[in-house]
């Protein structure tokens, strides 16, 4: 009887592994050294943000996150808020980016007391597609952070749950500030 139960359990585990797994989140096709794709997106700060408007002026962190009001996204955005002085001292502008609509992002930012702008790719999801982070079956972004230097070049990328920890992005920005 125990052997039959083990066989059934192993068979169920195999079937679940083969057929029951969701597709893995996409990995970006962009690489360190690539020019970051330009975009203009609506912002919780009130005015649209054009990425190329920061060239020659500031480094930029684009923190793509899946969905407002969820656990990992809350932790990540709170961490950026708590570490904002590190980014500002490295002459870096932080943006949270998601496919949530602007009113949802605004409420999310208010609830978390986040002062950096959130950018909405709700309408067409073109930016999340261009950056290679859109999960098309779910319509949301894979958690991915891009650190972009003042010349518009990508200097650091973190993907998945590792991007909840902002220390890699903070370190990359501090290195940029020394150049």
Produce a short descriptive summary.
With 179 residues, the chain is an alpha/beta fold. The chain is 35% helix and 20% strand.
General description of the model:
The N and C termini lie far apart (68 Å). The chain has 6 helices and 9 strands; from the N terminus they run H-E-E-E-H-H-E-H-E-H-E-E-E-E-H. Helix 4 links the parallel strand 4 and strand 5. By secondary structure, the protein is an alpha/beta fold. It has helices at 2-19, 71-82, 84-89, 102-112, 126-130, 167-177, and strands at 40-41, 49-50, 59-64, 92-98, 118-120, 134-135, 140-141, 144-148, 154-159. The longest helix is centred in the first third of the chain and has 18 residues, at 2-19. The strands form 3 sheets. A 5-stranded mixed sheet has the order 5-4-3-8-9. Strands 1-2 form a two-stranded antiparallel sheet. The protein has a two-stranded antiparallel ribbon with strand order 6-7. The protein has a single domain, classed as Glutaredoxin.
Distance between the termini: 68 Å
Any idea what the radius of gyration is?
Answer: 19 Å
Alpha-beta content class: alpha/beta
Instruction: List low-pLDDT spans.
Output: 5-21
How is the main sheet built? 5 strands, mixed
- Taking strands numbered 1, 2, ... along the chain, how are they ordered across the largest sheet? 5-4-3-8-9
């Amino acid at each position: 009887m125990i052997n039959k139960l083990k066989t059934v359990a192993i068979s169920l585990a195999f079937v679940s592994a083969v057929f029951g797994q969701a597709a893995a989140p996409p990995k970006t096709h962009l690489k360190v050294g690539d020019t970051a794709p330009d975009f203009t997106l609506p912002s919780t700060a009130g005015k649209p943000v054009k990425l190329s408007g920061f060239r020659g002026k500031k480094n930029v962190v684009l923190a793509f996150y899946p969905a407002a009001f969820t656990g990992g996204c809350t932790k990540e955005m709170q961490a950026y808020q708590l570490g904002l002085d590190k980014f500002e001292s490295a002459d870096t502008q932080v943006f949270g980016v998601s496919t949530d609509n602007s009113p949802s992002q605004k409420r999310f930012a208010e609830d978390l007391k986040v002062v950096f702008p959130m950018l909405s790719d709700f309408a067409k999801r073109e930016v999340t597609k261009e950056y290679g982070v859109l999960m098309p079956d779910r319509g949301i972004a894979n958690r991915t952070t891009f650190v972009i230097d003042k010349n518009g070049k990508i200097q650091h990328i973190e993907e998945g749950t590792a991007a909840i920890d902002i220390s890699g992005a903070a370190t990359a920005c501090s290195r940029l500030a020394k150049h």
